[in-house]
Structure formats: C-alpha cells, structure tokens
UniProtKB/TrEMBL annotation:
This is Pentatricopeptide repeat-containing protein. Gene3D superfamilies: Tetratricopeptide repeat domain. It comes from Rotaria magnacalcarata. SUPFAM superfamilies: HCP-like (SSF81901).
Length: 117
C-alpha cells in the first residue's frame, strides 16, 4: 500500500513527525511502520505511547508482531519497569513461539522480570 511506503520513506529520512501524521491515517499500517513509529516514541522517552501502539497493533488481525517489534516494546517496558506489561508480552511471545529462539528477547525479559528463564 502506498501510504505504508510514504510512512516508511519519512521514517527513513528521520522526519518522524510527518511519518506519524501519515501513520495515523493508515487503515492497516505495516509492521515495519509500527516499529518505526514505536522507535520514534522510544527516542522521545514516550514509553507509554509505544506500549499503546503495540496494543493497537495486536488488535489488528492483519498485523503480527515480529522480533524487532518485541525488542522495541520490551525496551519501553524495561524503561517503565512495567512487570505486568512484560508478563503480557512474554505470553504473546510464547503464543508466537518466538521465546526460545531469541537470546536478546530472553535477556531483556530476564532483566525486567528478574530471572533468566
């Protein structure tokens, strides 16, 4: 979809404010665009908005989180020290069978949850 490409172009050029405007108008944003906007919010230290965007993405049946999505969301969760959100993401990872294959995800979750499952 052209609108996803426009958002990706603005993200790539570093013009996140315009990318966000376009992103908010897209019916079905791509995973790449979600991650790009989440990274933008993380740069602004707007951790809560990153988590809200992740929740919005999960509610869209066409869009499924990938490893970069989880790493971005877990960064926000770690900064917020939000144990409940970390547990929810852990469940999402288990459902997608991504938990055991990615050491970086395991490490971040371990830091947040205080264990090294």
């Amino acid at each position: 979809e052209l609108s996803n490409q426009i958002v990706a172009m603005y993200i790539a050029s570093g013009d996140y404010a315009i990318a966000e405007e376009y992103f908010n108008q897209i019916k079905d944003p791509s995973v790449t665009n979600y991650v790009g906007i989440m990274n933008y919010y993380n740069q602004l230290k707007n951790w809560e908005r990153t988590i809200q965007l992740y929740d919005k993405m999960k509610s869209q049946r066409k869009t499924q989180a990938d490893v970069p999505t989880y790493l971005t969301v877990l960064t926000a969760i770690k900064e917020m020290k939000n144990i409940e959100a970390a547990k929810q993401v852990e469940q999402d990872l288990i459902k997608q069978n991504l938990w055991h294959n990615h050491a970086e995800i395991q490490n971040i979750l371990g830091e947040i949850l205080g264990n090294t499952e």
